Amino acid sequence: MSLNQQLVALPVAVTGLVLAGGRAQRMGGGDKGLLSLAGKPLIAHVLERLQPQVDEILISANRNVDRYRQFGWPVIEDAQPEQFKGPLAGVLAAMQVVRTPYLLTVPCDSPLLPVDYARRLGAALACASTDVAVARWAGAWQPVFFLAPVSLRDDLARFLAAGEGGVSRWLLRQRPVAVEFPQGPAWFANLNAPEDLARMEAAWDRVSHLPSERV
Fold it and tell me: Which CATH architecture has domain 3-206?
């Protein structure tokens, strides 16, 4: 069920953007989204949890583009893919082609994405006097987990053209509403190093069916 079906207060279509365009240097330079967890690529876990929550999906990738296309969704590259300019470059590339009014972001290494992630950010945004909603756990922002209108594309382009950087810095300019996720350590368990992936693999049977909190 898509966000606009779940939340009458925000009757718009939403595209989910899976961010898989980084270098993954702490993973030894391997393409993180294609690393195996519980018998399938990391990004496959993310897509399974994201697809029921949104109307469309885009994958942001700068390597192995053909392999990412095999997951059945359009793949977009950064304007300068060889430079790996960070998540915001992928967000801007998506905003320039997306067909829906809103974009919901998630990194490719979050296999425990909450099944009500879109609904909760959408609900918070519908009640707020701002344009952007960002996930937060225990007072800590999760800056690559946000819902934003595509109309911010020009602002983002100016931000990047000025040499600015950092997802958090751009988001703070938008005065986002924070959406608390009490089980943050499990849901937002980014896998940045081989040992993180090994721990997740060992604990998968226990953590892969964690229930979602409800607002």
Answer: Alpha-Beta Complex (3.90)
